[in-house]
Amino acid sequence: HAHSNNAERAYKSMGRVGAAILGSKPTKSFSIVLYYNKTKQIGSTPITDELSFIVQNDTYGSFYDTARQNWSLQFASADAANTFATYVAIAKYCVAAEPKLVVQELKTPDKGRVRRYRPSSYPRAPFYSRSLALSISLIDCGALAIATGDTAGVKYRGWLEANGKPGDLFDSNIEGSKTFRVTLGAGKVIRGWDQGLVGMRKGGKRILVVPPQLAYGATGAPPRIPPNSVLIFEIELSRVKFGSGDDDDRSPPGLCLHHTLQLLHQLQVCPLPLYLSLSISPSVIREPPLMMMVAE
To answer: Within 10 Å of residue 69's Cβ, how many Cβ atoms?
Structure first.
């Protein structure tokens, strides 16, 4: 099913439609095509390396066409949504002027939630006055993003790219119970992983399309990976150990600064700020939370 949203924010249901990615790798031309049947096309938009295709709630995908009209697609299953997103990522790689790493999110962890505390239940807050009838509204920004120096435990599958689509599966640990552990930036894996895993959060899943220069280059990795191979990985982050030694992969109560407006809008929180203060702890130094005190 598809819905469109124009510049006037008017949503329109398009009913049950088909969605396809059509194009040619030699001509570096790919498009997303929406249609009712083989003879009735709703519309199409060219895929560029700047196109943003967002997977939401496992079965939804959305993107903007060249007219800045937003399209929201509901797929029959999470697998169908992931497959379509994977083909979008491959197409973005194919149309790029120069080979570069493509990262496509398939699943992102929870964006946060509001929790309320009375001052007596949060005694370490350094800036409340017990003489005021205050509560503390804290928005938990969820799992912290991993960065260089952190260790990730992942489940993954890897394919060779073949004519604009996934080809032979050359490696996987999906069937086993153990995760593959990698410390980002340690040089123990291909550079495409060192770069492509940065920013992931526990529970997240993404597609990486890795050019040869960030993989095994002109030598390949015989016999499974030929020279100059483009590699496609589906990676899910299952475990995290931060470089600081902190195994807690959730942030303390607070609000990540770059999520402030987005979260307040999504959670429909309209507090009366009495005091704003940055609270930075070593384990979350790269994402300092913002604590907000509000009157009840």
So the answer is: 15
Q: Residue 271 corresponds to which tokens in the numbers above?
A: 């507090």
pLDDT tens track for 94-136: 999 999 999 999 998 865 544 444 444 444 444 444 443 334 4
Tokens of 106: 């398939």
**Does the pLDDT of residue 142 top 80, yes or no?**
no
How many whole angstroms separate alpha carbon 67 and alpha carbon 64? 8
* Beta-strand pair 18-24/29-37: antiparallel
Q: What Rg, from alpha-carbon coordinates, does the chain have?
A: 22
Amino acid at site 215 = A
Helix, coil or strand: residue 36: strand
Contact by Cβ (8 Å): 277, 291: yes
Question: What 3-state DSSP class applies to 176?
Answer: coil
At 247, list the tokens: 């195994």
Closest CA to 45 of 35, 55, 56: 35
Tens of pLDDT along 20-45?
999 999 999 999 999 998 789 888 89
Spell out the alpha helix ranges (H) of the chain.
78-95, 191-196, 260-266
DSSP per-residue codes, 92-156: HHHHSSS---EEEEEE-----EEEEE-GGG-TT-TT--TTS-EEEEEEE--BPPP-TT-EEEEEE
Specify which of 9-13, 166-170, 253-257 reaches the highest per-range mean pLDDT: 166-170
Using CA atoms, how far apart are residues 108 and 123, in angstroms rounded to an integer?
33
- Token pair for residue 74? 């509901």
Sign of CA dihedral 144, 237, 100, 217: positive
Sheet of 113-117: strand order equals 113-117, 134-140, 290-295, 273-278
Report the first-to-last Cα separation within the chain, whole angstroms.
Answer: 43
Q: What is the DSSP letter of 30?
A: E
